[in-house]
Design the sequence.
């Protein structure tokens, strides 16, 4: 899912997005619906089809597909999330994805990690329906979609003693954060359903005051993590110790072709993997008791 | 307003009518604030267990409305026997005291419910009923009871009741906005609840003292 503004396909796309009237003229809405949670549109623009949620500034692009090449990863955040596969030498056997969107991540993982059983959790049944109908999302025999709140799913998995090798958190919209999915307690629950050396990838925010708070919150639960910033901010980490650069490159070799075929560049992703703590370490940790994430996300950094 | 009305009735003679009216308004206004503060924060308590969705808010609003409704009925009945500002203050105390278990035991209770009722609708409904029915019921008793204290004759009763609804509902609006816009940004949920309960105890205590002094 896309966070904040337009990402990924470079300056041309950014310019198109800024030129709102022109973009609006080229955009062809092929489906519109008001779901239980939001207004969803599906729009086509040239060779791209996107799922759009209403956002503060116009429509937020939650998920996009290249019509002529559905495997292509339109948003740069997607290969960044998928680079969590590089953190371990052995492929994951069980994957959990919170936040389905158009199904980009589960579709890519079904091919990149065909042995894995994948659980996808999506709160909005309309999103799942639209992903299947307009974005070619076809759950494989080992993929299950659960229409449920992510927090509830994780808590239930914790009670049942489930363990995943790879967890992807991708439940935030351009303008709205389910606040109970960005707290220390939630991340502790997520950690408790991760097996030994399991990897985590989380798609979060990079530009507002929330940056500092989410950083201290993640650090309080996972310690050191890789911080990949490029419009979106992707947090990557592994239980135990983080792999070093050499291990990551070695692990990534197995996925190199699959990434490049989809428009991702592992070599470039390596350069984004930083463990430097560039946030205010005194920022208050977000908890179930204190979680005004949406307000913090509208405030500028540094106050 | 009612201070223009004839002197106090027998039941409220313990305190002069004007003072009693002010205390009744203050308690009703604060009670309105308190109910909405608790209602908004209840969503925060429940979300980690049952999610943040339309069912949760359906359950919360249903229980708060239902609790208030029963409270209105009981408050009206209770007001027929020796009404006094002290008893009104006592209702405010009980409403605050019955909120305390939601803070102290809410998580344990929710955790237990989570294991026993998996449907987010009925799970959250039963949870809300156990945690919030009593505090809202007692809060609901405040308004009719306060009206009994304020009203001194039949001609002004509609005016007095209207004025009380005004004050109590202004309290509710303020409680809603302040809690959601500012308080959650500054304080932890439990801190806000403890402070709100303390204000209820303090306001009730002051009202009781005031009535006793005038006796």
Sequence:
């Amino acid at each position: 899912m896309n966070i904040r503004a337009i990402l990924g396909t470079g300056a041309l796309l950014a310019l198109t997005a800024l030129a709102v009237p022109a973009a609006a003229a080229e955009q062809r809405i092929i489906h519109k619906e008001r779901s239980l949670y939001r207004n969803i549109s599906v729009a086509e623009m040239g060779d791209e089809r996107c799922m759009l949620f209403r956002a503060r500034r116009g429509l937020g692009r939650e998920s996009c597909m290249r019509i002529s090449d559905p495997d292509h990863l339109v948003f740069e955040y997607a290969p960044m999330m998928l680079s969590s596969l590089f953190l371990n030498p052995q492929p994951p056997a069980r994957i959990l994805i919170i936040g389905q969107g158009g199904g980009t991540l589960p579709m890519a993982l079904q091919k990149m990690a065909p042995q894995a059983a994948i659980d996808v959790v999506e709160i909005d049944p309309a999103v799942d329906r639209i992903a299947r109908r307009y974005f070619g999302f076809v759950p494989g025999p080992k993929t299950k979609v659960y229409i449920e709140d992510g927090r509830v799913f994780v808590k239930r998995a914790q009670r049942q003693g489930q363990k995943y090798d790879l967890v992807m958190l991708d439940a935030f919209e351009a303008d709205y954060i389910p606040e109970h999915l960005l707290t220390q307690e939630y991340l502790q629950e997520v950690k408790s359903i991760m097996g030994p050396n399991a990897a985590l990838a989380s798609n979060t925010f990079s530009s507002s005051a929330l940056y500092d708070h989410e950083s201290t919150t993640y650090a309080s639960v996972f310690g050191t993590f890789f911080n990949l910033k490029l419009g979106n901010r992707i947090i990557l980490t592994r239980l135990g110790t983080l792999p070093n650069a050499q291990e990551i490159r070695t692990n990534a070799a197995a996925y190199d072709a699959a990434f490049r075929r989809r428009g991702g560049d592992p070599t470039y992703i390596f350069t984004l993997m930083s463990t430097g703590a560039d946030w205010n370490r005194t920022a208050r940790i977000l908890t179930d008791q204190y979680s005004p994430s949406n307000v913090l996300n509208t405030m500028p950094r540094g106050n | 307003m009612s201070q223009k009305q004839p002197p106090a009735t027998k039941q409220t003679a313990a305190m002069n009518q004007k003072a009693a009216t002010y205390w009744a308004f203050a308690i009703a206004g604060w009670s309105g604030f308190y109910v909405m503060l608790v209602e908004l924060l209840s969503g925060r308590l429940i979300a980690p267990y049952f999610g943040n969705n339309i069912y949760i808010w359906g359950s919360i609003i249903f229980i708060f409305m239902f609790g208030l409704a029963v409270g209105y009925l009981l408050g009206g009945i209770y007001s027929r026997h020796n009404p006094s500002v002290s008893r009104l203050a006592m209702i405010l105390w009980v409403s605050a005291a019955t909120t305390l278990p939601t803070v102290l035991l809410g998580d344990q209770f929710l955790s237990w419910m989570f294991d026993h009722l998996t449907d987010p609708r009925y799970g959250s409904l039963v949870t809300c009923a156990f945690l919030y029915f009593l505090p809202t019921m007692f809060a609901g008793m405040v308004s009719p009871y306060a009206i009994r204290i304020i009203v001194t004759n039949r001609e002004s009763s509609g005016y007095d009741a209207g004025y009380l609804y005004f004050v109590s509902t202004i309290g509710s609006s303020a409680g809603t906005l302040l809690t959601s816009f500012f308080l959650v940004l500054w304080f932890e949920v439990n801190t806000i609840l403890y402070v709100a309960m303390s204000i209820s105890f303090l306001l009730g205590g002051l009202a009781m003292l005031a009535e006793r002094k005038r006796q």
Notes: The interface with chain B takes residues 36-37, 123, 148-149, 151-152, 155-156, 159, 178-180, 183, 185-186, 287-292, 295 of chain A (CB under 8 Å). Chain A has twelve helices and eleven strands. The longest helix of chain A spans residues 210-222.
